[in-house]
Design goal:
mainly alpha; 80% helix
Length: 219
Amino acid sequence: MLLLSLFLTASAFAHGVADDDKLFIEQSSGAQLIPFMYLGAKHMVTGYDHLLFLFGVIFFLYRMREVGVYVTLFAIGHSITLLYGVLSGTHINPYMVDAIIGLSVVYKALDNLGAFRRVFGFQPNTKAAVLVFGFFHGFGLATKLQEFTLSQDGLVPNILAFNAGVEIGQLLALAAILIVMGFWRRSGAFWHQAFAANAVLMAAGFVLIGHQMTSYFTL
């Protein structure tokens, strides 16, 4: 219960932006490529909902080529909607977007558990699903940037730099996850713990969905 309470409290600050970062974003004018790249990387590394999804995506991937394909599809998806959402001013309710991001975590856990084939008798196209959920993850990032008053001077290069930073942060986080997964997979306990790990992953996704939907209807 304590762990769940801590997770619920932390979820209130999903994609949170530090006050100093917020002040910089709103006061910056002109191209600030390195700072925005840093902010993008920081945002991804601390965005645990994205990391939970990536963890689920690579859970049973052993070949680097397969990891590269799935991560590239995810990167393409969220890059498109991040850039489109901010530059076009297209706004989607952030609570609904974050609820769908939580759903993506639940989906991947169920997929890893083989639930779709076992319960529903079919297997979704996993590559297409990762791309589609990548679109929603990108909109999740875009909704956070849309909360700030962004200067039009240098907006395009700054958003491109932010997106590049997101990709760098994703690669750094993915490298850390793969290292940990490598050690875990070599242990004899991995296959015994895989079911429990994905059950916890699914529970985390449901907590994210519940928190965001509660916020949507009450705030």
